[in-house]
Amino acid sequence: MLAQKSTTRCVQGATAQNRQQYRENRTESSNKCSCSCSCSCSCFCFCSCFCFCSCFCSCSCFCIYKEHPCFARSCLGSSIVVSILVLKSYFPFSLSLPLITALDTSHPSLFSFIFNPFTPAPPLFYPALFTMGSPSGSTTNDMITEEPSKPHQVPRLARRLTGFLPSEIKSIDTMIPLKSRTLWNKHQVKKFENPDQFEDRFISHVETNLGRSLYNCDDLAAYEATSMALRDNLTIDWNKTQQRITARDHKRVYYLSLEFLMGRALDNALINLPSHKGDNSGTPSRDTVQQSLDDLGFKLEDVLQQEPDAALGNGGLGRLAACFVDSMATENIPAWGYGLHYQYGIFAQKIINGYQVETPEYWLMNGNPWEIERNEIQVPVTFYGYVDRSNNPTSSTLSPAEWIGGERVLAIPYDFPIPGFKTTTVNNLRLWQARPTTEFDFAKFNSGDYKNSVAQQQRAESLTACLYPNDNFVQGKELRLKQQYFWCAASLHDIVRRFKKTNRPWTEFPDQVAIQLNDTHPTLAIVELQRILVDLEKLDWHDAFNIVQNTFSYTNHTVMQEALEKWPISLFGRLLPRHLEIIYDINWFFLQEVEKKFPKDVDLLKRISLIEENGDRQIRMAFLAIVGSHKVNGVAELHSELIKTTIFKDFVKFYGPSKFTNVTNGITPRRWLKQANPKLAALISEYIQDPNDDYLLDTSKLTKLTQFADNKEFQDKWNKVKLENKLKLADLIQKCYDGQDIINREHIGETLFDIQVKRIHEYKRQQMNIFGVIYRYLAMKELFKQGLTKEQVAKKFPPKVSIFGGKSAPGYYMAKLIIKLINSVADVVNNDPQIGYLLKVAFIPDYNVSKAEIIIPASDLNEQISTAGTEASGTSNMKFVMNGGLIIGTVDGANVEITREIGEDNIFLFGNLSENVEELRYNHQYHQKPIPKELEMTLRSLESGMFSPENPNEFKPLWDAIEHHGDYYLVSDDFESYLATQELVDQVYHNEQSEWIKKSILGVANIGFFSSDRCIQEYADTIWNVEALKPE
């Protein structure tokens, strides 16, 4: 009866003309349906008394035409994939992975399938739809390929079943027997809402997932069980969030970043719970979890320490991405982040004899309870090979082509839930890990070739082994480029697959999808989307590129020409031959447009071309990102103006200024105030009378603190919090120095904590900072020589500890030499009994988010001393100010806007302005002047071997860079101003303590503009054109 009814429905959905057209479009390999049913589709017969097309006629047919009328209707799942699920349910033992091998876009009427021999299907049984499992019974949507042993097959897109469209949900829901549906609803997983439920979930995870018991559950097991219990809650909200977005058919944002410096996930998840019992009735609180753990015999603080930082980034780029995905969830923006699942991070930094030594960062040694490994999804990514046009040898590069790859790897996603604050929205961070198509070669192993039997596995897994492979040699460059394409290709096919489920025309792709490129690393996504649209979806080249341009937007993070990414043509063409063709075509049409607007301006064409012709020809990835995007933004007002007048001025000349905009960076106050500095956050909540911490969503409320800036009682409490944070940092430094307590705790309250923690680079000028420390040390020693007492010296140079932290790129010699100098100076200064507590130097190795959460709240002064015009924005400056630290800095990056927001009286600025930089560099080259005497004294101490007695010339490259190589970063020009400003800092901190605390309070009160929530609202309104989708 059911079959007859469905058949009627199918036939009614197709006209006679349709039916005839479908019959004519059948391939020669398709068999005419031999049964007597009235089904009008073109089918493969299986003689199993069941039609696997969605019309449910009573024949043994398999529908192969994706545009059959029944496909678009709301019968069983409105999709051929439902039939596939039925088939897999019948024959789970005989279907190879993957079942569907290709959607041949050159012949859209044909799906090809791989089947092993199998027995006739059993009678129809609908619950079999839900008996799927294992990779061979995959139920996800992804790009899958022919068997891995066929390297020349072009990857295709195929629809599979992860998310349902609303009509599909209703259709399938009616097929589930009432009893099954009742049982499912009765036993479905629910969020824990009280201590008893949390404890039940905790113990369940300990005893089942971890295989432990009451007797051997340690802090690590407690961390894992707590994380799993909280992840259960997040996963429920995550599913509801994705269903809500799908049901509303809402536009999504996809944020592509090579780094996501997330920090610890458990503490962040707890922050997103209500703060106190009774808040948001019906939901658990942080206090609930803390009390339950205490009752179970664990301390929350000890449990939190068990989690390693996720090694998914290095510096400000990755931390900005982490803040942004946090704010997108908090602001209810439908968004996914895409990155890479690094096995060993960038590296674990160890300091051995003062030198940075890179070792693997084993952050996944104990697994990661926060991520969901999606082994059922396998996206093949191809490299090398050639472009084949044998089917149409006269076609141009603008026509669809077949890329015959020479090597293929699989991308496996790991999903990481991203919760919002005071919302049930949970977005997704998808991280790709590379795996081989064939992990183990048995033939080679059996022949004794053990090494090569796993060669494919090693080659594939190197793609996601670590962040930023050293590119000082050709193999390193090739690995970096492969890594970037692997990530972009997997992400793009995931995005395209999700869009294709909506059955919208391609012209609506930009209306449903906004892709943000975080720096130039994901620029290949532009070319990959163009390839998909032209080669796989058969769109006209120009129509396709119009879609691409309206989809992408690009965030630039540098003003330094040498920092803009470029790839040699020879390497690029060998690795990605079809993509090079597409780039040539993009460049050709772009230069034609430029020439029309500025005829005969050959120099402009050379400067603006995507291909750099000087010397070895290279692809300018930043230029490609501009041409392929509809918006380009800088990350601070000064930075956005500089890129328009320097590195991208020719593009402004061509496109006009409207394509370029500014979105000043921001940070999430939940992580960098509430989580990093809980006592300060509580003090703020108390005084602005905000017990629910609403100011963490509306940071403008922080301005209420201004009325307490002169309040003596409030200042005392403020200073007490700072002192407690300094003691925590002293504990961390003691741990880093193997138990040696280099900071005198008796004088810690009167000791200025001067901190510079960030990626080590010459433009950030850690070398100038340590030169200043050396000068201070030499000047103090001179005073002691003159017979002054320690108390007298302290009046001129009060107690101070200079704290450094940050990693150098493995191949960056000068940055690693700066780290060595810092540690060499620390060895001398910290062991000088005459100096004692008046001056200390510390380098904190392996700087990461968790250490930043200890370091930043303890700062009195933070150094933002980059050469003017080189720092795009900086976000550590915002974090320090939000935690009550004052800035000593140049007029660079976001320092300009911070000064405007908090007031000139509450920041210590020095140095030359960006507009003077080029002239100063010119004068260094052609009109050298003597360097300042203070710097001269400092450099001569280095030359004397005071800090490297065994090798007096060890630091010669550092003083040569200033004296003989043009002083590119202008240390000599700013050094006197820097020292004078440091003297002013000493005076205010030690002689005007109340005034210092007032400046600290006013800084926090006026830092609200730099919330990442504000950034995301600006991106959503001015670039992405997307609206929030709040939970019902």
UniProtKB/TrEMBL annotation:
Biological process annotations from GO: glycogen catabolic process
Cofactor(s) required, per the database record: pyridoxal 5'-phosphate
Catalytic activity, reaction form: [(1->4)-alpha-D-glucosyl](n) + phosphate = [(1->4)-alpha-D-glucosyl](n-1) + alpha-D-glucose 1-phosphate
InterPro entries, per database record: Glycg_phsphrylas, Glyco_trans_35, Pyridoxal_P_attach_site
Record-linked Pfam families: Phosphorylase
Known EC number: 2.4.1.1
Family under the similarity heading: Belongs to the glycogen phosphorylase family.
Protein's recorded name: Alpha-1,4 glucan phosphorylase
Gene that this polypeptide is encoded by: TBLA0F01850
